[in-house]
Design brief:
48% helix; single chain; Helicase, Ruva Protein, domain 3; 62 residues; 3 helices; mainly alpha
């Protein structure tokens, strides 16, 4: 790892893999959690809501 240059390059590669060209922030996840905890989600059962900035669109699901 050394000077952190490899880490920065790895992070750039991860960000580039997302279709929105950014990673989801903790606030992005928090907004979904608040929604799911509220009355607006009272009829949502067993749904998967990925908060991944579109990563699954690029890499797919096994």
């Amino acid at each position: 790892m050394g000077d952190g240059g490899d880490d920065a390059h790895s992070l750039d590669r991860v960000v580039d893999a997302h279709s929105l060209q950014r990673m989801a922030a903790s606030t992005d996840v928090a907004v979904i959690v608040l929604f799911l905890a509220g009355v607006g989600a009272r009829v949502i059962i067993g749904a998967v809501l990925p908060v991944d900035a579109g990563l699954l669109l690029i890499v797919g699901v096994d």
